[in-house]
Amino acid sequence: MTAQRPGGRSARIRTAVHDAAVELLQEADWDALSIAQVAERSGVHQATIYRRWGTLTGLLDDVVSERLIRSSPVPDTGTLRGDLDAYATRAALDVAGPLGTVFLRGALVGSRSAEDQIYLMERGVDLQTMLDRAGERGENPPTLLELMEVVLAPIYFHAIFFGVPMGVEQAKSLVDRLQALRPPHPGSGQDPSP
Known about the structure:
Blueprint: H1 9-26, H2 35-42, H3 46-53, H4 56-71, H5 80-96, H6 100-109, H7 118-136, H8 144-162, H9 168-181
Helix pairs in contact: 1-2, 3-4, 4-6, 4-7, 5-6, 5-8, 5-9, 8-9
């Protein structure tokens, strides 16, 4: 078995294809995005793209996953509140950033099939680790579903349906709402007030 060289040909292909997909998603007619367009823009043959990602959905999922992991690592501040505030802040800033709508669009295009939602599963594992750490510290963390429904979904909803990203303070107010759902364990040292 031959080990792949980090930063080798495979990494260069992935970077070229990802960059081409992001550029194309930034253009107005993003509904018409195709593997053929990505191949032409990236200089990578269509057969290579199909062999590696299988579908446009698989490619977009990989783009979104890689960009989220790179730009938004799951925080570890030492407290549940600190982690949740940092996570909500980063999510709001990502959506408000220059590529925010691109990634929202990519996530929407790329989540048509449950089989192709690998990035959501990976992100869920990372977030669950953050919540598990809080439980190990004696805090009373929300469930992953509560975190997604009360914090993340409204941030995305606001950007998609109102066309304006949510501000950081507004995102932190979602954390207040989330924590109000889960009173602290007695003797945990957590302040019950937001």
